[in-house]
Amino acid sequence: MFGPTSRYANIPDATYTAPDGTVISYKQRRFPSVPSGTPVGQTTLRTNERLDVLAARTIRDPLQFWRLCDLNGVMDPFELVDEPGRKVLVPLAVVPETR
Predict the structure, then answer these.
(1) Which domains, ranges and CATH numbers included, belong to the chain?
(2) Which of 30, 38, 73, 84 is deepest in the core (most CB within 10 A)?
């Protein structure tokens, strides 16, 4: 359901059985450990830089913005890019496995 680099890829599935017997599958809640990962560098946030652009520039994948947030201890992703000039820790880029 989720790609190998998704923040939900390693989150266990769970089920709920409704009173009428319907079984509903869902992902368990994700609790990031703050900060998470090992920084390999640091960058300075540019003026008007969007979160996806920051992720593309630093870890080469705009969908991996959540890794920047986890490493920098930010729960609200937009908080990471609200202050131009902010120093942002950069995690190691993850290369998805090919099959």
Answers:
(1) 1-30 (no CATH), 32-91 (3.10.350)
(2) 73
